[in-house]
Amino acid sequence: MLTIRPNCECCDKDLPADSTEACICSYECTFCRDCVANRLNNVCPNCGGGFTPRPIRPASEHRPGVSLQHHPASTDRVHTPYSPAEIRAFTDSVKSIKPENR
């Protein structure tokens, strides 16, 4: 189950559970759309994968036990361990390779 991280790992923008601005990689690294497009070149700086929009977990229970009420989003803020220079060098080195071929 997705942890639904509360922030962009790059700029620390708040990304609440219902945000349509949140993007994740296959490891659930979480970044805002602006960072994905303008800083990361659609390359996760942590794993090298691509991004997809983060799904939105239903706030209301439509089936018993299945909603944010029963499985809340994480409150633990996460930040990438890499510096802006390291991110730029890494993403520039693989951005020309399609995510499915990385």
Quickly count the domains: 1
Mean pLDDT, rounded to whole units?
Answer: 97
Helix content range of the residues, please? 10-25%
Work out the number of β strands: 3
Q: Tell me the Rg in angstroms.
A: 14 Å
Q: Report the major sheet.
A: 3 strands, antiparallel
Strand order of the largest sheet: 2-1-3
Order of helices and strands: EEHEH
Could you tell me how far the N terminus lies from the C terminus, measured between alpha carbons in angstroms?
25 Å
Tally the helices: what do you get? Answer: 2
Structural class: alpha+beta
CA-based shape: elongated
Strand portion, in percent?
Answer: 5-15%
Quick description:
With 102 residues, the protein is of the alpha+beta class. Helices cover 17% and strands 8% of the residues.
Walk me through this protein's architecture.
The chain is of the alpha+beta class and 102 residues long. The chain has one domain (22-101). Helices cover 17% and strands 8% of the residues. The protein contains 2 helices and 3 strands, in the order E-E-H-E-H. The chain has a 3-stranded antiparallel sheet. Strand 1 (22-24) and strand 2 (30-32) form a beta hairpin. The longest helix is centred in the last third of the chain and has 11 residues, at 84-94. The radius of gyration is 14 Å and the shape is elongated. It starts with 21 loop residues before the first strand and ends in an 8-residue tail after the last helix. The mean pLDDT is 97. It holds the Pfam family DUF1272. Residues 58-82 are annotated as: Disordered. This is Urease-associated protein.
